Amino acid sequence: MKRILVTWVGHADLKAVDNSVENGLGPVAQALTSLAFDEAVLVCDLPKKEIEAYLEWLRPQTLAKLNPFYTTLSSPTNFSDIYGSAVNAVQLAQKIACGSADLTFHLSPGTPAMASIWIILAKTRYPADLLESSKGRGATRVDVPFDISADYLPDLLKRTDSVLVRLSEGAPPERLEFKDIIHRSDVMKRVLAAASLVAGRSVPILIEGESGTGKELLARAIHMSGPRSNRRFVAVNCGAIPSELVESELFGHEKGAFTGANTTREGFFCTADGGTLFLDEVGELPPSAQVKLLRVLQDGVVYRVGSDRPVRTDVRIMAATNRVLTEEIAKGRFRTDLFYRLAVAVLKLPPLRERPGDLSLLIRKLMDQVNEESRSEPGYTPRKLSAAAVNVLMQHSWPGNVRELLNTLRRAAIWTEGGTIGPEQARDAIIPAFSSSTCGILDKPLGNGLDIRLILEDVARHYLERALQEAGGNKTRAAELIGLPSYQTFTNWMTKYGI
């Protein structure tokens, strides 16, 4: 998929041709020299001669192919003209990419009206990253913390996608690939980049992440991108198997091995032979099964319950857990040697609250899925979310991640009479987070070495790091997110708390 920057060219860009320190590179050149793009579509409403001189100056400074798009505006603040030109430029970008482009819109060049149109397009018809740049901070990605509902732009939200992603109950798509995983955030891009690197190797993979983050989804994408894609992918929920049956389910059993074993069973390892075995919630395995799993990883053979005859098996192991296995090791509940056998490649899936920019995409996509699921129900009218309902969903922290989001949308659709889900239905559909009476920051026992200053430092450090991550490294934006007055104050706090 080609990474394409779509941007207006402004007067600040043309001044960069003078190569003066005062003018700097200009917003477009800053973006193209700071970030990697395959192509750039430059929307131009300035004199063609000046644009050509600018392109001649810009080409030696970037590896991206430059595609000028000339247009004429009645006014640089005429929203209708700007919108039409911006849509045509984006369509040119899609044509360049043969229909599938990783788009970024640049907010800094041009007028505020031009930046506003980019935001509208990125939040509706053409999902894209947003970028801004300045001489002081360079080029940084922007997360605009709101969504635009179909109430306002009904004709802009019709978009065809190749896959309906299922992240809750029910199996994910069988032929899932990395490109089908909905995301926009940099943190997810890094996870998928690492996953694609390890996909071609047959080493074991451990996927860590909270419940509902899509660990099986990622495992299926890795399988489909690897050399075993034409063989079986077998998913096993280790936490759902009764402890007395775990070894029989995984490794098989001989007829008569125990009461009720009326036939020989091959087990999941043999079922997945030649393909991939995905062990979800591997931290739930009892100690006896952990020992046998370690032997399979070491020797490539399984022993059925009731048999001492080795059965050779060739499977790729992927495991997943929502536990911190190093803590389980410290508590004696998980084997150290098994952990290191599984953790040859470790991928950490971030929770939804740490994926800036992804929530609005998932809300839209999963609402489509809910409508598709309910289409055959008598009298069902497809639901849409009002702007206010979207804002309610955007403000929730989603401790249950994507699975919680999907089920919330299902409840909202059930409880809504008519076609539009309003803010009240959205609030009613959200299940309040469970409170914990143990180990919370407000529940620490007094005395016994309690130091309130250390607790306050931990809280400050947590929110400083979280704000910086959500702001994509932009300290001015991070300061705004946690109520600090300025970029400099945020920097001083970082220094104070050792970040």
Fold and architecture overview:
It contains 19 helices and 15 strands. The chain is an alpha/beta fold and 499 residues long. The chain has a six-stranded mixed sheet with strand order 3-2-1-4-5-6, with helices on both faces. Helix 6 crosses helix 7 (215-224). The longest helix has 19 residues, at 452-470. The two termini are 35 Å apart. 36% of the residues are buried.
The protein's oligomeric status is single chain
Largest sheet: 6 strands, mixed
Specify the structural class: alpha/beta
The proportion of residues in beta strands is 5-15%
Q: N-to-C terminal Cα separation, in Å?
A: 35 Å
Task: Spell out the key features of this protein.
single chain, 499 residues, alpha/beta, Rossmann fold, Helicase, Ruva Protein, domain 3, 4 domains, six-stranded mixed sheet, 40% helix, 14% strand, elongated
